[in-house]
């Protein structure tokens, strides 16, 4: 046996240094915190629990004699004189067993240790552990109690308050059990709740106890059990947040990280088995939603079936319809854990929770939840917060939106199928779809440059988003839901509502051309127009569809097909403006397909078709065709031929056109100036290019056109580079990268390349994102 100093702390430090380990390394290997290890070495913790000593000895690689010597040094520190007036019996409320494979939660455990070891508070510290069902609240509290046990020599007690039972433990009964544990004879127990509270606090005032109140129902149940003075610690676990408890330390357990989830599986089934199927272990962590209960069930199933492969189980769990059925091991089931919390809700809150599962997208808003559940908005808002307090929903920390944990979403979908009448469910979906589609239509009209006056038609004007900024925020936040409503309307045959919504989205789509969903929107709108027998609207929305394929999905073959179909429909109803648009959109697709001569020919035909139409729509379409023709010529190396077309378009944009609002003309002027600037750049006239692009940039910023703004910044940065002004070029290119990245534009990579090296060749930008304003 090696020679080491006397006393547990010095002995431990000497052994650690001899092993060549830092405190951090030993703490990690032994599964204790660095703070706890430091306290042991300094003598602040003189007698750690036997299990802790065994873990330290194993981590240090001690032989049997050294391990026994370390345990011998720790033992005296556990035997401390008790200061209580009454003897503490061996007890009927012992701590449950601590699981040997406890994983993660290091920061939460260290926070509890800091709470215990910190300055003496005015009242005994209380920690409340909350979280989604299945997060391991009880396991955490029990593990923490074992880890902290040596700090509380006067006793550690565990009391299950049975919140999920039909009749949870009453406070006076819980007090009676604690008092008996503290040595009070049955005949000496006070009769009233108040007297029992007083006696408990007097008996514990000078004791250092650790009390685990597990599975608490509410504040009323636990308040009488909280100690009033002294240095004892109370750990409370609850499926409710217990927000009404004052001056408590809150421990909100998050989901495990992916690597922590894999580590838990590893500790249950063995490192070698996980190493053989590392990817399958990661897949299992994901299938279990990184929920400790689901992971433990999965691990114990695998431990009981040593021949079962992890990949097979991961494949089985990949089927959502049977995932909850498979997450069962003996009496442990994920579904049962969720059911206990679900059954605590009243009927309205249950319906609200179920109906949230009918919402589309990763989360839902109070408005959508209220519509689906058929309850007033204010009631829904309050109940959603209560569902979060019950751990059944997760609230977004920054906005008023709510989402499910993955497994809870499956559970709630089961409850919808089992409990909701199909007719009532369909009525809820229809009601929500009509409301959402009406609001989306009204919100989109904020961006219609041809629309005069404030938008109308919102289903609830009192709560409608006002102004472009709020309208855009709503449309983006609720994108999944109103798109689902749009598709529901199409399937239900609400053709006029579909067309009205799609037409309202026409200008808003210019601001968000990075959304590939626009192709689905305008395809469905064209089908609705066809169902209504409206050739003009069919041609219009087929043209919008061609724009979407050219600018959003970047599928020029589909864009050409849609443009050709629009051309057929437009000619059938002799709509010259839609003929011009169809020729232009077809040319845009042909250009992307490398068929430049055909594209130029179509654009000339488009301009000729529109040249003599003096109507406001005709003038706008002509400006677009002229710009597109100039762009095609420039990209074909004929920038000198492009200039006259852009100058003609610029002249038209600066004229007074009755029926066209000035804002629309200024937008077209910005589009034309961008094209003009690019043509000047191609002709090696960088100063004129800079002037035109700066004017275009100002216009796009005034019109809140981020896509066009980012592209123009990219093009201006290239011109500044050619003018040998690298500092200015870097500033503008950095702004371009930020704008394009923020809006997920495919040219963000090009901006990054330009910023990294100002010596690379210019990257030809695709046509303007302004599909209708820009051609």
Explain this structure to me?
Helices cover about 60% and strands about 5% of the residues. The chain is mostly helical and about 775 residues long. A five-stranded parallel sheet has the order 2-3-4-1-5. Strands 6-7 form a two-stranded antiparallel sheet. Strand 3, helix 10 and strand 4 form a beta-alpha-beta unit. The chain is elongated, with a radius of gyration of 35 Å. About 5% of the residues have low confidence.
Structural class: mainly alpha
For the largest sheet, list the strands in their spatial order: 2-3-4-1-5
Distance between the termini: 87 Å
Write down the Rg: 35 Å
Q: What is the helix content?
A: 55-70%
Portion of residues in beta strands equals under 5%
Largest sheet report: 5 strands, parallel
Average residue pLDDT: 91
Write a brief structural summary:
The chain has 775 residues and is mainly alpha-helical. It contains 37 helices and 9 strands.
Topology of helices and strands:
Elements: H1 8-18, H2 23-30, H3 34-42, H4 50-60, H5 64-78, H6 106-117, E1 126-130, H7 137-148, E2 156-160, H8 171-181, H9 193-204, E3 210-216, H10 219-222, E4 233-238, E5 249-252, H11 258-269, H12 271-276, H13 278-287, H14 292-304, H15 310-317, H16 320-326, E6 328-329, E7 332-333, H17 334-343, H18 347-356, H19 366-373, H20 377-389, E8 394-395, E9 402-403, H21 406-419, H22 422-444, H23 467-477, H24 479-492, H25 495-511, H26 518-532, H27 535-551, H28 556-572, H29 576-592, H30 596-610, H31 616-635, H32 639-653, H33 662-682, H34 686-702, H35 706-722, H36 726-742, H37 748-756
Parallel strand pairs: 1-4, 1-5, 2-3, 3-4
Antiparallel strand pairs: 6-7, 8-9
Helix pairs in contact: 1-3, 2-3, 2-4, 4-5, 8-9, 11-13, 11-14, 13-15, 18-19, 18-21, 19-20, 19-22, 22-24, 22-25, 24-25, 24-26, 25-26, 26-27, 27-28, 27-29, 28-29, 29-30, 29-31, 30-31, 31-32, 31-33, 32-33, 33-34, 33-35, 34-35, 35-36, 36-37
